[in-house]
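Practice problem: predict the structure.
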Amino acid sequence: MKNKKVEKKNNSIAINARTLKLLYKKYPQMIVSTIINSIWTALTPYVGIYLSALIIEELAGARNIDRLKILVLITVVSLAVIALITALIKKWNETQTSNLYFKFENFYTEKLFQMDFVSLDDIKTHELLSTVRQNQNGGGWGLYRAFENYKALFSSVFTLLGGLALTITLFSTKVPETSNDFIFLNHPLFIIGVIILMILVTLLAPYFSYKGDSYYAKNANLHNLGNRMFSFFGWLGHNKELATDVRMYRQDLICDKYNRNKTDTFASNGLFAKLSVGPIGLYSALSAVISAIFIGLVYLFVCLKSWAGAFGVGMIMQYISSITKVSSGLNQFVGTIGEMKTNSSFLSLFFEFLDIPNTMYQGSLTVEKRLDREYEIEFKNVSFKYQTSNDYVLKDINIKFKVGSKLAIVGMNGSGKTTFIKLLCRLYDPTEGEILLNGINIKKYNYLDYLMIFSIVFQDFKLLALKLGENVASGTKYDSNEVIDCLVRAGYDEGFRKMNNDLDTYLYKNINEKGINISGGEAQKIAIARALYKNSPFIILDEPTASLDPIAEAEIYSKFNEIVDDRTAIYISHRLSSCIFCDEVVVFDNGCIVQHDTHKNLLKDEKGKYFELWNAQAQYYK
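Answer:
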């Protein structure tokens, strides 16, 4: 049991140290400015305390006017210089610590960009990230708390050191021998007893505060759930995409039920309300009472020694101020250590996310850039299953793509079509078998080079709230004529003519209020233009006409060959009418390729899956 406690303690120290190193590596000026600001803020008050004590001591004693002038001058100049330096350090620190939310979000964003897609596509990854963010946004746990803890730690340590420097003479200065009634104040055991009592009382306050805060950490899951419920039901009315359903089905009544629930997490009869009037409130009260007792002990001890003649009036101010700061410093130090210990479990989740390994081999071979687009891809005995599943999504796939051919991939939902495309683009690696590009396993090619030979329009594609030209080119520098040509070939020439600022027109209004809100069909055409602009030898369209009206769909099909040009084209579609324009059709069913032939030949097989799918749709067009 003891070893487990030591191990847990060491882990807490290690994980907090790792956090500081991580923050310093990413934002060195932020950490340095914060440390300097904390130290400066902790030490400079003692200058005023010390000089003020000397002035009061002189006023209560000899009242030497020349000495008073010098002391006042030194005090004024010192405080002016301190104020100036404080302002400069504070400004520097505020600049470096601005937008902390986005600074910390950068850790998550960079990790997501660098992560293997197979990990990014795993629901467990997003559950973990969601938990980390809920801890951060709900209770401030994780990076926020770690950053604030280090600020408090440096501040408390130097507050302690500065206070001890001005307090040590309180215990070493002796009461005159003539003060018979107070001579006991000089006895070493009495002094040690007073110091121990002060330390104990000081330590009790942060301990009780830590005990109270621990209830929030213990119930972090419920705290996070409460935040999620509030984020959903409390802001549902702001989501315009749900506005019609909310009104038609009176879903506001569901929201009202949750929002008015008195036993909810943060409600008046909820858990945290009960804890606040129970143990949390009790520990907070005890912490406040202990702090008041400490102040009383300090005043009693200092005033007794002064009354007995150990020092003058000026030193009373110095000792009371400095020893109070020592107490607050020790209080803060102990409380911060407790918070760092509690926060370490939340930091563990953060690092669990950051430490998700990339297992995909990146390769080193350069993909040859061929003007003739002579790229041949072959699947050899390829099977795939997710790491967390025993069931195969794809099983024993064998197929070779003919250069420049148009291939349609069809099948029912869950038949493995999208997984096949993700393997082709190497977003996933096969569980078994291999995929070859020009006879070489695609794992041996440089990963980013390999991705460049594919232009894809996914079914759940996204456009950014940026300029039209930047969306098509996926960059800020582009060939305007080429962008326009791609838009025309994708059937968006009429939509482009309506744009208020040509290629500089912003899509949507998220960034620019003059942006244009486009329909789903228009967005799909722009996404197709984006795929064309990339000019890759393979073009893959996943449900390319899903959001288009029948006329726009017919237009796309009529310009089919013009759109894909001499590329190898792959179509995934539930609308089997697209198969007519393709050279070959591949039919997936239950993770296997069950048919592979031309559209006409497949229709001749009346017992085949393709014939079944075709006629299931064709009956509605007859």
